[in-house]
Amino acid sequence: MQLSDSSPFGDRESQRFRGINLQEIRAEAAAAVQSMSAAGIRPGLAVVLVGNNPASEIYVRGKVKSCEEVGIYSEQHTPPATITTDELLALVADLNRRDEIDGILVQLPLPPQVDSKKILLAVDPAKDVDGFHPMNVGYLSTQRPGLVPCTPAGVMEMLERSRIKVAGQEAVVVGRSDIVGKPMAMLLLNANATVTVCHSKTRDLPAVCRRADILVAAIGRAGMITRDFVRPGATVIDVGMNRVTDAVEFATLFAGNAKREETFRAKGSTLVGDVHPEVAEIAGAVTPVPGGVGPLTIAMLMSNTVKAVKMRRGNQVVELSRT
Ligand code: NAP
Hints:
Layout: H1 10-38, E1 44-48, H2 54-70, E2 73-77, H3 85-97, E3 103-106, H4 116-122, H5 134-141, H6 150-161, E4 170-174, H7 181-190, E5 194-198, H8 205-209, E6 214-217, E7 235-238, E8 242-244, H9 247-254, H10 258-267, E9 270-272, E10 285-286, H11 293-313
Parallel strand pairs: 1-2, 1-3, 4-5, 4-6, 6-7, 7-10
Antiparallel strand pairs: 8-9
């Protein structure tokens, strides 16, 4: 498939990806925040982080920092890991009531004693900047305006801004989670791709993946998508974020990569996607990990917060091109 000259992918082009797409999306969100604030409406995001999950703490820190950068008001709520479902429901109800809070994000996973589905259902759909509420899921699948999960929305944004054709293309999504795989498939379908969704029970996964012009890996298994899953020239989107600590596993992925070896030696771990590095040799384009879909997801959270303001209190009709 043909990639545009401004393709953000590949090792060399990933620099441009970081520079152009992210900055563009953030700059657009910042400009919207500025004009809303000038009109007396400062967008506000509340992040709920339960307990002390180290990975969640890192994600939330990134989200709050990004809010500061684009001028969104943000506040963090950090109840203890022992919180009950009812206590968390009370917190969500309070955030739902507050007019100056436009977006509510409950960082997952929640502790086992908390009924996560009940919590996500309690978030006002108009403030559901993660797009996980069943009402927003329904809006997406029926192509009505709503809030779309940040990670798949970011992937669509990246494809569009890189001028990668989607309509009429074969798209294969590996993974069927509610937060990535399913909404990803729905967005690609809404954009007129021919979509196949794969999962752990899919027969002959490499053969199905090789049909793809656009292959999205959202699995959670380091380097699982090797070159035999990829048709030469395909666009490969790596959603996976896996921390590899085992030296033998590291060697199967990055032996001979001096930069990675240095990081691994220094930190004792490295962040790896679901796509094996060897795929870069045959793919037309592949998103890097770290630095690809992860930061884009946070940028989309800013855009979603702006969208939530417009929909709930901006008194404007919002054109949602892909929902
Ligand atoms: P998840 O809920 O665990 O879902 C994983 C999916 O992969 C499931 O549908 C599962 O199939 C499928 N799968 C697992 N092993 C497989 C195999 N051997 N062959 C085929 N399919 C297999 O994970 P998730 O929340 O969607 O996240 C996926 C990855 O994306 C993780 O690495 C996560 O950290 C990352 N992620 C990144 C971002 C970001 O901002 N970049 C955001 C969210 C998630 P079954 O349904 O049959 O079990």
